[in-house]
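Key idea: predict the complex, not the pieces.
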Amino acid sequence: MLGTFAVGKTSLVRRFVESIYSDKYHTTVGVKIDKKMVPVNGSELMLVLWDIEGTESEHEMRTSYLRGAGGYLLVADGTRQDTLYKAIALQERVKETIGAVPFLLLMNKADLTDEWSISERETTALHEKGWEVIQTSAKSGFGVENAFHSLAKRMAEA
Amino acid sequence: MTMLPLPIRDFILSLADDTLAPAYLLVTGTGQLIERGGELESYGLKDLATNQDVSESVPFLLGVLPLEGKSLFLPHVQTKPDTFADVYIFTREQGTWILLLDSTVQTAQQQAMQQRLYSSRLQVNDLEREGNALYQANAVLEQLVRERTVELTQTILQLRQQIAETERVRKVGQES
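Result:
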């Protein structure tokens, strides 16, 4: 799980793994690791999820956490435009570090779309670059299962 | 460390034992357990058997072994609820060593500072957003005032023309 701070990485993992959500913001320090079995193409795949602390810029990200990653979810907060630009910069950094592995961009906080500051045009441009962009809400659960399952499928097929 | 007198080295080792709860695993290059020791249970690591693949029981080692390069440092890894470890992985002639040192206190201190910093950043974001909304609302209001002023000016002009015309007609009526 990668993205700048307070975009909802931990909330997405908790929603996916434990089906719970809390409105209270708790910043993550270091890395928290969770596991969940996911059905993919008729068999079960164990996803080991590294919920990595969000940083303010891609240069502050500790790349040792990326060692051995088979894929990743980039998370942006739809209500904060800068989080999308930071996610794009992070993707570049990850690609430089571990090469091209499957990833998806999650536009989180889909329960607040009336407050979004990221335009459709910006996400369309990323679609055109070949990025898969999924809207999610850790609060309501919208799109969360789909996001993790899509990543698992891409990783299995890679 | 070799330059330090023995009592100092002993003191440092004792301090590490008391405050860092050291624990270790020694594994083959591919991750089979050769040896283990230290405070493993305090990190939630137990029931590890010799020759087993450690990544089955230690999730943060999955994908990390075999180790690329000579060493790897993973700071603040949550090994169980409320327990964090700094994890050092390095290769020596015996195999790959995995050293865990407790960092729960430092993680909590960093978390408290980071929480304040990021919460402040979020508040600044909210204020900026509200400020922008106010600025835009003000711009809309100013535009409305300008439009209404033009309308009123035109209305006043029309009324003046009507008054003048009425006055002219009245004067013509009086003269005739």
